[in-house]
Amino acid sequence: xxxxxxxxxxxxxxxxxxxxxxxxxxxxxxxxxxxxxxxxxxxxxxxxxxxxxxxxxxxxxxxxxxxxxxxxxxxxxxxxxxxxxxxxxxxxxxxxxxxxxxxxxxxxxxxxxxxxxxxxxxxxxxxxxxxxxxxxxxxxxxxxxxxxxxxxxxxxxxxxxxxxxxxxxxxxxxxxxxxxxxxxxxxxxxxxxxxxxxxxxxxxxxxxxxxxxxxxxxxxxxxxxxxxxxxxxxxxxxxxxxxxxxxxxxxxxxxxxxxxxxxxxxxxxxxxxxxxxxxxxxxxxxxxxxxxxxxxxxxxxxxxxxxxxxxxxxxxxxxxxxxxxxxxxxxxxxxxxxxxxxxxxxxxxxxxxxxxxxxxxxxxxxxxxxxxxxxxxxxxxxxxxxxxxxxxxxxxxxxxxxxxxxxxxxxxxxxxxxxxxxxxxxxxxxxxxxxxxxxxxxxxxxxxxxxxxx
Length: 454
Fold this sequence. Notes:
Shape: elongated
Number of strands: 25
Oligomer: single chain
Strand content: 25-35%
Distance between the termini: 41 Å
């Protein structure tokens, strides 16, 4: 997909000549053409390649080379070029208030030290990146950020760097900002709005906004933290080093082809001793694997590490509630506990059940409500890491909690189920989002529950 150098205008012009030529005996006529005629031929050549894709293109657009939101982020822009030189542009991102918007305008391939794609009439979608207006979604009330006169500082004219004859891709370079922007064909029959919803949903699932647990970029023997990727602008730095001193940002975008999702960095960079840029998601391994080297991949964190690091921190609480995912046998126990509490007092109900750290000791803590806003009762646990996951052991309760246990015996049934065997620790749908951890009994696969990691 990537050309590492810009084609010279001589090369471009040569391509134009090849396109125009039909047979060897026409060569004299071509070279008899004026410079203007040859430039027009080049314009027609690249115009024909832009219109060659019947459902248009997926553009991976980067307004600038900056490393901060929103100027350095990437944006998926869909566009279809028609032979009458109209272009339909559609997108759904922060610039369109996170709703789908599209507009049509005029385009042309002009010649200016080489072929240049120009969006030469106003497009109320595409020109949002180059309009010199104050961006309404940056800054805050207390710390305003005024971009009046600059806007997002993007381009609306692009040098055509590479455009192969088969129209399999096209590489554009921003005329002012010098960002490289890849165009790949949009599949026929795919609706623009649906495509953007699908890609956005997948990216949000894999890289949730505000997610603080680091993922990893593995490049051969080198491992890098891959953090704060929720906005597509991750900080990538070696594991075990300082995140600020060693910060290195490399924005990425997610695209889709068929049923496959691809992650591509804005910049091809060398990490360790390997250069990487484009990855394909492998659902069976839950990894983004480099299309060039399978020893290079991006993976989520490890569920057991996240689980223990949170529970071993005094201030952390791992919570699961009746509303979270759980097996039928677990839900049945929660229902029994709730019913027994209501028999003790009709105003009681189970709000949540936590496994938490209290000054270095672990407890199963039931949060139930009565006449007071919140009432807790704690049951003591030992917790140890095992080859299979985690092992809990019940070690008793204080007098008040024991009184509750006597009146709500289903609590002991739950404790016995949790402590019956090792609990396997796994992620939820993907290890790229470990805000939810699943614990499954190794002696009964049908007993499991999901914990919300706070």
